[in-house]
What does this fold into?
Amino acid sequence: MYLRIWKKFSTFAHFYIMANKRKIINDPVFGFLTIPNELIYDVLQHPYVQRLSRIKQLGLSYLVYPGAVHTRFGHSIGAMHLMQEAILSLRTKGVEITDEEATAAQIAILLHDIGHGPFSHVLEHTIVNGVTHEDISLLMMMRINEDLAVTGDGLPVTEKPLDMAIAIFKNEYPKHFLHQLISSQLDVDRMDYLCRDSFFTGVQEGRVASERLLKMLDVRDDRLVVQVKGIYSVEKFLVARRLMYWQVYLHKTSVAAEQHLIKILSRAKELARSGKELFCAPALRYFLYQPVSMAQFAPRSEALDQYALLDDNDVLSAIKAWVSSDDKVLSLLSESFINRRLFHGELLDAPLSEADITALNDHYAKAFGLTTEDASYLWSEHVSTSNTYSEKADTIDILYSDGTVRDIADASEILDLAALTRKPIKRYLFKYRNGI
It folds into this structure.
């Protein structure tokens, strides 16, 4: 009798847990999103994924667009939702995608940005040497795969639950089009961040017809194509991406703030190397006080665990404390950053000459009583560039009713190939505001 009662209770508990893991999330951009199964729920609950809710999607862009405080977690679940819609659309056209492949593709896009650190690429240029967020993303996916690869008895399993997702992410899975949905020139990652970033910044030029684009997707010869009736939506998508890059992602003030932050962290790293005691959270201290390169990272390593503890709060709280540092350079940079007196930017016609660099260093050295070496932290030369479309990457292919396929660069009547593929360059001088 007790066995029958236990079996009934176990069955009830199992179904309760399953139902409890199938959550509905109210997203301000796409409405109600669903978590379709237990595995995806368990991935979402992993600390590495939850950390994304403490990292802003647009880094320092909130200093220009006050509404841009949305997180990388929101972007990740939005991209997962668009992957669900893309798979549904392809299945209605007869494209074979198994349930296992659908789950794997959703997990792969959910985790595609997991390796991003606080304030986007700033850490890659300062306290972590030669390690990109793509490298970290793959390591974190491998770690989550290990953490979830246990039985109910805590024993390891032979086939890990994220193996297929990682293969799709690395473009090692036989169905190439699944990787294209994650990483290509018309992927669900870009569709989400254009819609989401446009929504939160208020820049309406970035809004794209993601629903229509997904409805127009098809597959030919294991490659994604867009039905010809969706060509105008593709054109709008490319134009929106170009406008968002120069109006939001590469906005002069946003780039100035990023360069300002890079100088702060670079100075802190220099002081830490010299043995100076600085206030900071343990995770930030780990990277400031020792050289960390790719050699220290592995799926199970202290470097990866410490990196996973870093978020925007660690960096900002440290900078607030550094305002009162007895190091003049760190104090100047931190105080002006906290009070939004960001580096002033001006366009350059050509790279700075040796004479220009000497003049800048001499000016700041004299103005603040610094050495010329220390004065170099108060300015930065930077080049911003972005292209709308690349002929060398996976092309955006248009499918015509007669079965022929043409690159959007050839198929479009309004987009010029030279304009699409050209990489405009803007060279800036960013410098500390003190009247120079």
Summary: Confidence is low (pLDDT under 50) at residues 1-18. Residues 2-250+398-421 form a domain with the Hypothetical protein af1432 fold (CATH 1.10.3210.10).
